[in-house]
Amino acid sequence: CAGLFDTGSLAGKRVVITAGPTREALDPVRYISNHSSGKMGYALAEAAREAGATTVLISGPTHLPSPERVTLLPVVSAEEMYAASLQALPDCDVFIATAAVADYRPDQAAAQKIKKGERDTLVIELVKNPDIVAAMAAHTPKPFTVGFAAETERVIDYARDKLERKQLDLVVANDVSRSDIGFNSDENAVTLVWPQREENLSRRSKHQLARDLVERIARQLA
Ligand code: CTP
Ligand code: CA
Questions:
Q1: Disulfide: which of 59, 89, 96, 123 matches 146 by Cβ 3.0-4.6 Å?
Q2: Which residues are annotated binding-site positions?
């Protein structure tokens, strides 16, 4: 648990982080997912832990090792991530949503493997997944809630729209149309979209970015 003896900037605080992709089952052997590596969320979990916080990492499937002294809650689907987030919410001071949550899931996963048969087309009906970060931000008492926005155009506009629509305290926006950094890279450059201003953080490693984000969040809590 968060050490009584921790003296970091988040000592005594409880931080919950979502990370990685989700997988939405089509049938017992197939799923819909995305290319999220989970690196940013895992780096943030390490940085929060180093800053003295009790840290819970709710992670979809990744290839990353579990960070030390962090409680890792593995999940697969968006609905599982939502349930785990609700459970982790009591006493949560900071909620950071880095997960690339599938926006939609197949209405019902087929009980048996879907057979190709004679058909040339296949239509699968998708239903919307719950918005996890918006639900956490709507909770009373409200944790300091941080979202991530990966955009390919109008990056700041869309990020600010998410800040307002989901009632977030901070959105970390990045331009994924740049092929050199971002989604699967070890580095990133972002713009922090705060309610009243914007702040550019130039290109740096995800580990450094995580430490810089944690310091800014800690300053807001203080
Ligand atoms: N998010 C979430 N639950 C969802 C969808 C998104 O918690 N079902 C969170 C992400 O973890 C991220 C933020 O919301 O922190 C923004 O995610 P993004 O996919 O950019 O936003 P959406 O609202 O899904 O909008 P769109 O995909 O249309 O851009
Ligand atoms: Ca989305």
A1: 96
A2: 103, 113, 130-133, 148, 162, 166
